[in-house]
Every structure is written in C-alpha cells, then in structure tokens.
Design brief:
Largest sheet: 2 strands, antiparallel
Shape: elongated
Number of domains: 1
Number of strands: 2
Oligomer: single chain
Mean pLDDT: 82
Radius of gyration: 18 Å
Number of helices: 2
Low-confidence stretches: none
Order of helices and strands: HEEH
Strand order of the largest sheet: 1-2
Length: 71
C-alpha cells in the first residue's frame, strides 16, 4: 500500500514541478528586432511558489513512503 502511495506522490510531485516551471517560464518575454533586443519580466505570482512547495512536499512524501515500504 505504501509503495503505491509513494509512486503516486512522486508522479504528482513531478507534475507540480512541471507546472511551476511553466508558470515561471511564462513570466518572461523577449523581442529581437535587428540588433535591438528587448526583454520583459512580470513579477511572479504566488501560484508559482505554491506549485514549487507542493512539488517539493509531494516528492519528499513519495520518497519517504517508498523508503518505508521496503521494510
């Protein structure tokens, strides 16, 4: 039982990590016209930090569940 919960938590952690990366990546924009380069960056939303926190918590929980299931 712990092994299946651990696997699910690791997968959920990876999904939240991808969502956090995409939220972070969506906050920037670049424009190149000839030799002129413009870059804009939007302040990050709190949702980005929530995704990173959920990703970390799910990964740690999944690893702990997988480690305790081997006993």
């Amino acid at each position: 039982m712990n092994k299946s919960i651990g696997i699910v938590l690791v997968v959920v952690g990876i999904i939240f990590g991808v969502l956090a990366y995409r939220a972070h990546d969506a906050n920037t924009a670049d424009l190149k016209i000839g030799k002129l380069e413009l870059s804009a960056e939007k302040k990050s939303d709190s949702s980005e930090y929530i995704y990173w926190g959920l990703a970390g918590a799910a990964l740690v929980g999944g690893i702990v569940a997988l480690a305790t299931s081997k006993k």
